[in-house]
Design a protein that fits this description.
This protein is mainly α. Helix content is 61%, strand content 0%.
Length: 221
């Protein structure tokens, strides 16, 4: 069993404390408050991170690496593109919903002046698994001619923001409601010819369900 070195443990506690405080208070959280929550001396933060911006970038990069790995976990590369997208959406939501503070931090960064620096730093870590998935030969031709950042937000932004909700509303997004949302996201990122295709409403298992409502046979007169 490996034992974390004290300095590594302190760095991890600092990042977690900052993550929590930003999720709770935004970027107004002071470095003193971070040190107090992490249980370290205020000067210790600067041993690991030269500035608040550097700390933001470090936390963001860590979250994005973990999210990218979780997003593509268990995906069958031979499955249809829509199915792979659906599994990816579920993976992102489940990963972030297990610890919503991570989703809240990502939302805070994306709406802040730090977004550009944080995104650039994440790109330096290498190819994002989601970018690679979008570039697959059977996926790329289906995607709308929009900037990658727009496709990402239309496709997976709802999963991130639902996980970030503090009012518990993400709990109601299961079964048919979730599948309808994912269908809408898929239509939003695919080309016009696909948007005109009516995708089936799905049941709690993700299987196509009848569109007929109560008391209706579903047949046209």
């Amino acid at each position: 069993m490996s034992i974390a070195r004290p300095e590594v443990d302190r760095a991890r506690r600092i990042r977690r404390a900052f993550l929590e405080l930003v999720a709770e208070r935004g970027f107004h959280a002071s470095m003193g408050a971070v040190a107090e929550r992490a249980g370290v001396a205020a000067g210790t933060i600067y041993v690991h991170h030269a500035s608040k911006e550097a700390l933001i970038t470090a936390v963001y990069r860590e979250l994005k690496r973990d999210l990218g790995a979780a997003a593509i976990a268990g995906i069958d590369p031979t499955a249809r593109p829509e199915h792979r997208f659906r599994v990816t959406w579920h993976n992102i939501f489940r990963h972030l919903n297990a610890d919503p503070i991570r989703a809240r931090f990502l939302v805070q960064v994306d709406a802040s002046p730090y977004a550009g620096v944080a995104h650039a730093a994440a790109v330096e870590d290498g190819e994002d698994p989601l970018v690679a998935a979008a570039a697959a030969p059977d996926m790329a031709p289906l995607l709308a001619a929009l900037p990658a950042a727009v496709l990402y937000d239309l496709g997976f932004g709802s999963a991130i923001r639902l996980a970030a909700r503090v009012d518990g509303s993400s709990d109601i997004m299961d079964g048919p409601a979730t599948e309808r949302l994912i269908d809408a996201c898929w239509r939003a990122i695919t080309r016009d010819s696909l948007r005109r295709v009516s995708l089936p409403i799905r049941d709690a298992r993700g299987e196509p369900a009848s569109r007929a409502g109560p008391g209706r046979s579903g047949r046209r007169r």
